[in-house]
Amino acid sequence: MKKQNKQVVGTFRDGIKTRLTIISIFLFLFGAALIARLAFLQIIQHDTLVAQSEKQYLRTVKTHFGRGMIYDRNLNELARNVEVESIFVNPSEILDRKSAARILSATLKLEQDQVLKKISSKKHFVWIKRKCSLDEVVSLKKANLAGVGYLSEQKRFYPKRELAANVLGFVGMDNQGLAGIEYAYQNKLKGATFRRVMERDARGRSIHSNEGLRNSSAGSYDLVLTLDEVIQFTTEYHLKKQVERFKASSGMAIVMNPYTGEIYAMANVPQFNPNHYGVFPSHTWRNNTIASSYEPGSIFKPIIAATALDKGLAKPQDKFFCENGTLKIGGVYIREASNHKYDWLTMSDIIAKSSNIGAIKIAQKVGEKHFYEYIRNFGFGEKSNLSLPGESAGQLKDPKNWTDLSLASISFGHEIAVTPIQMVSALAAIANGGNLMEPRIVHALIKNSRVIESFKPKVVRRVISEKTSREMIELLKSVVTTGTGGKAALEGFDVAGKTGTAQKYNMETRSYSKTEFISSFIGFAPADSPRLVILVMIDNPKEAHWGSVVAAPVFQKIAKKALRYLNVPSSKERIFILDRA
Prior knowledge:
Blueprint: H1 2-44, H2 46-57, E1 58-65, E2 70-71, E3 77-89, H3 97-108, H4 112-119, E4 126-132, H5 134-143, E5 148-157, H6 165-168, H7 180-184, H8 186-189, E6 192-200, E7 206-207, E8 222-225, H9 229-245, E9 250-256, E10 263-269, H10 288-291, H11 301-310, E11 319-321, E12 326-329, E13 332-335, E14 344-346, H12 347-353, H13 356-366, H14 368-377, H15 406-411, H16 420-431, E15 435-437, E16 442-447, E17 450-454, E18 459-462, H17 466-481, E19 496-506, E20 511-525, E21 532-539, H18 547-550, H19 552-565, H20 571-580
Helix pairs in contact: 3-4, 3-5, 9-19, 11-13, 11-14, 11-17, 12-17
């Protein structure tokens, strides 16, 4: 019996030992698995899990601060930044979404369905409207909606509204330059991009800080332009008035310093407000003074005259037979404007009276080779290297592609397309003694109130001699004193210039229109010591179309105001100063 009891006890102990061993092995394996899992999570999956954890509590939002300022030549502000607030929501905090959508859409002038869709998102951060007006923010804060948050940003602001808008351009929602100077100098102006961490509390409510944003302009540059605010306003004002008066399609004007190439004004009509560029037709954003090319008409005649004089092929008093108003070339009859019937005219009279046939006769004496060479030397057929986007090179055919009519047509500004900036630069070369200057719109780069880079006048090349320049000035003065440009005359100042009335080419009919024109005047003053070269072009005026009637008066008004503003003495004042000296 005792032996049997011992066997039972032994069997029981062996069972317990076996079970303990199994349990120990299980615990060991469980512990090993737990340790392995912890090692996997803590070491291998550490970065991924941390990121996922932070994502539950944090949101990174990009904001842009400190874009560089833009000034005119006298440091008047043309573009700056203002601090505004943008509105976002945390949908998880919004209890009555339909009511919230109704209030948000009404206050912020948004589509209610779109707002409801946004605030129904499962995300914890959703933009509702960026860069809101002060009235919108004040009104919404009064509503005291749960789940609505406000974030400080900077918005580009153009304090002078339409002034020089086509030159300045505009920026997008994230302060990136989209047009004009803003686009061309994006890398200099762009400021700083901040990744702002939006921490949320246990209830998912956003917590953010503006710390570090106030000094965010340290990395950006400010731009000083060559534009003069006063001359720009004067140019835009008188150009717009004339475009409206003649119900024209558009208008352009440029004011340039002929000796430095600095552009004091660059105007386009119709205008747009870059603060609200989206509500204006996109064609109004275009800077047509550089981006569009036109057949210039008679304002191109000084180029053939300068070529003939500079090559010694003609003199100002040389006479040319003008065929009594009609010339046949290759089966095509070319007539004078307004059916004038000139017989013999001097070169000076040809320019003063704007004789088409006279220009052809000069061109025939010059020949294709020399004429093409000087056209190129004056800068036509190539970009001017102005630091603005979208510049056109115009259209100038190689002489090998010229027809029998090309030499004649180009001599009076047809069968060639030029940009206004090319035209004003070419006349500046005639005015300044013969040097083609590179046009400039940017004067300097500034950083931390210090000039980092200043842009100096640059001579591209000499085009004509000083003697030819003086002769051309006399020819162009006669346009205003005895010729077609009488309405450009200024009391107290000698003016040199040229009128132009170009028929527009109709691509559908493949012929020149008899009802659509580009009216223009280009000139400089004072003629013998020019301070300003001014080009005015008005596209498709109604009622009248002659450049002498439509464009020349605008030149006169701009020049009168600008010369007085620049304190340029009149001829009488100069005599008085010399007498006193």
